[in-house]
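# nightly structure sweep
# worker-07 picked up a monomer target from the shared queue
# config: single-sequence mode, recycle default, output format = structure tokens
# input follows
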Amino acid sequence: MTEQDPSDDRAAGQPPGHPAGHPAGQQPPPLPPYAPPGAPTPYAPQGAPALHPHPGPAVPYPPQLYPHGPPGKPPPDSAMWAHLSALLIFIAGTGACCIGFLIAWIGPLNIRGKTADPFIRHHGTEGLNWGITQIVAVAVFGALTGGSIYMAEEQGWPEWVPAVPLTAWGVHLATSFAFAIVGCRRAKNGVLWSYPRPVALPFTKP
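# output follows
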């Protein structure tokens, strides 16, 4: 390493030891602030070079979550129970006393009527429509099954005819139960979600 000759600075019109490239009597610009590793990095003051670019505008809140704004806390379990209560009442009530399909709407109606929160009322309405739809489905498929059995025994229709409404009824029940579970998960995750219309006919609105 060679020493710098002070005469070079004098030749350039600068005092000895002054950084090259800056006029004599003028201080170089301050370096931007440095944050040690692991420490929060502050933004540089106005007019100074920034260490990091500004993160930009906030990402819009997902429209499918809480249309009335971010909740600030996890969604309450009441929205999930609007679906789960209807499903459990249907299964347990039908297995115990054969009337569960008639009262599956009681749980969602109770949850829906005790709150003014739009999110909970939406899911309560969906669960209520699901429960009412099951009553309609049992009445329709029950009538078709009973009528096809009568026609097969009394009118000589093929014996496989009653299997058609019974199979359709089974498919409807399996689909309804599957979507009820989906509704529980969506409500638990804070998602504004609705049943497909064949599973929950729109008898009521939030």
